[in-house]
Amino acid sequence: MRPLRKLLKHLRDWEKNTRPFKPEKARMLKKRWDALPDHVKTPFQMVGRNSTGCEGTQGVFPKCNFSCTPCYHSQNANSVRIDREHTLQAIEQQMQFLQSERGGHFNYAQLIGGEVTLLGPKTHAEALCIMQQHGRIPMSFTHGDFDYSYLQQLLAHSPTSLKHLSFAGHFDSTMRGRRGLNNPKSEVELKPFREKFCKLFQKLQRETGISYFLAHNMTITRKNLDQVPEVIQQCRHMGFRMMAFQPSAAIGNPKRWQDNLSDNMADMVWALIEQGAGRSLPFQLMQSGDVRCNRTVWGVFIGDSYFPLFETDSQTDIRACQSFREMGEHGMELYRPDMPWLSGIVFLRALLHRWEWFCSFAKWGGRFIHRVGFLKLLLNTIQPMTFVMHNFMDAETVSEAMHWNEKQAWSPAPKIRAAQERLKACIYSMAHPESKQLVPACVQHGLLDFEINEKLRRIF
Predict the structure, then answer these.
(1) Contact between 298 and 309 (Cβ < 8 Å)
(2) CB pairs under 8 A, 24+ apart, for 452-460?
(3) Over the range 98-134, which residues count as b (16 or more CB within 10 Å of their CB) and which as e?
(4) What gap in Å lies between CA 44 and CA 285, rounded to an integer?
(5) If 0-12 CB within 10 Å is exposed, 13-18 middle and 19+ buried, where does residue 67 land?
(6) Residue 338 contacts residue 164 (beta carbons within 8 Å)
(7) pLDDT reported for residue 117
């Protein structure tokens, strides 16, 4: 009887772990949806339906050993020494607050500040474990200038066994200080450094079995604007699964502002991303907050051709998107990168919950195979790739918009009113447990970082 009881326990645990809908997550999603401004409550909005938004740490390790132009760190960031006790305590407090406000069902959170590898592998590993303990899927932000031994030590020092690593590597020609290429003049010069970064994780997976997710970040200025398509074409098969582009803004260290792009350049940047992908990218179906701030397209490279998962000219795709959002409203978890097989089972059980959901995705799958071509799908490498653009605002604009928001009034100036709307719809937040606030990233970097770093500098 003992083996039978053991088997029944495993089956009960399996059933519980693969339940597709979590009531607490559904409650947090509704709370998030209710807090969104009306102008982003569109039929295609994902925030408040599938996700509560993105999160990032603040004031936990401001220091960086690069000197980039532009730089979103405040002018005094490098005067704050890294302190292990402060870093871990601040992350613990921020994650506790985020869990209370946004729930704890695998929310995406960025371990961000200065350069994450300056924490050292032990503190870095401890920080990741703290974030995971509070239901976060952490992503470490780095300039990527480290060796394989760092990753080995990161795993060796983990208090609990890390099964998955997620890193965002920042590579572009505005960066100064990289070993072997201190002052790049063009994006093409960075190709071997991007390749090396990806190969480090590929080697780690071969030797340890750990899974990983790599994102590529790039700041866009007038100097490298026309090089965006070439960067995408070079990187599409390297191993990155996301390419994120940030048009430069006058935010952070004013001494390093050079040629920030104006707000109306966002369409131009997106057009160049489309040129690099080799086709139009329909961001309208998967909206994350305000489209003036964020544009996102999920898709795959099959061979050298890019295929978005959903297209705006297909009712089949639109219906599948609607089903996906409805599943999210019920509290379905989006994805477990450390257990992709579990995510697949959860998704299948969710589809079987309603016949119309199952039918909509079955039709979508058939259409996707038809538009790609069965033989092409069978004979080519499939590389998932998400394209993202984050359009930050200038600090001066943010300051004036916050002034009007605090007055609970609308500015008569169209640009400032637009900024007010964007801040109210922001999906990328930093936690401030001491004031019980979630602060938009543009406010954090444009208005708060300097004062926080001054306080930390005096403490340390």
Answers:
(1) yes
(2) 452/58, 452/59, 453/59, 453/62, 453/74, 453/76, 453/77, 453/79, 453/80, 454/76, 456/59, 456/62, 456/80, 456/86, 457/76, 457/79, 457/80, 459/86, 460/80, 460/81, 460/83, 460/86
(3) bbebbbbbbbbbbbbbbbbbbbebebbbbbbbbbbeb
(4) 5
(5) middle
(6) yes
(7) 97
Nearest CA to 32 out of 90, 94, 107 is that of 107
Closest C-alpha to 342, from 1, 19, 10, 97: 19
Q: Mean pLDDT of successive 10-residue segments in the chain (460 residues)?
A: 75 82 93 96 95 95 91 89 95 97 90 96 96 95 97 90 93 95 96 98 96 96 95 96 94 75 80 97 95 96 96 96 94 78 87 94 97 93 95 94 95 96 96 96 94 90
At 44, the amino acid letter reads F
Cβ neighbors of 19 (< 8 A, separation 6 or more) are 346, 349
Task: Please tell me whether residue 437 adopts helix, strand or coil conformation.
Answer: strand
Q: Which of 451, 362, 348, 363 is nearest to 399 (CA)?
A: 451
pLDDT on residue 122: 96
Residue 251 burial (C-beta neighbours within 10 Å; 0-12, 13-18, 19+): buried
Tokens describing residue 274: 């489309």
Sorted by where each begins, the domain ranges of the chain are: 29-313+383-392+426-459
Residue for token pair 């997976």: 205
Q: In what order do the strands lie in the sheet with 294-302?
A: 305-308, 294-302, 382-390, 242-247, 211-220, 164-170, 136-142, 107-111, 54-56, 428-432, 437-440
Spatial contact of 244 and 216, defined as CB atoms under 8 Å apart: yes
Dist CA 101 CA 431 (whole Å): 10
Fold of 29-313+383-392+426-459: TIM Barrel (3.20.20)
Contact call for residues 181 and 153 (beta carbons, < 8 A):
no
- Distance CA(434)–CA(451), nearest Å, equals 15
- Please report where in the chains the tokens 């994350």 appear, as a residue: 288
Chain centre distance of CA 141: 10
C-alpha distances out from residue 200 to 98, 167, 394, Å: 32, 12, 36
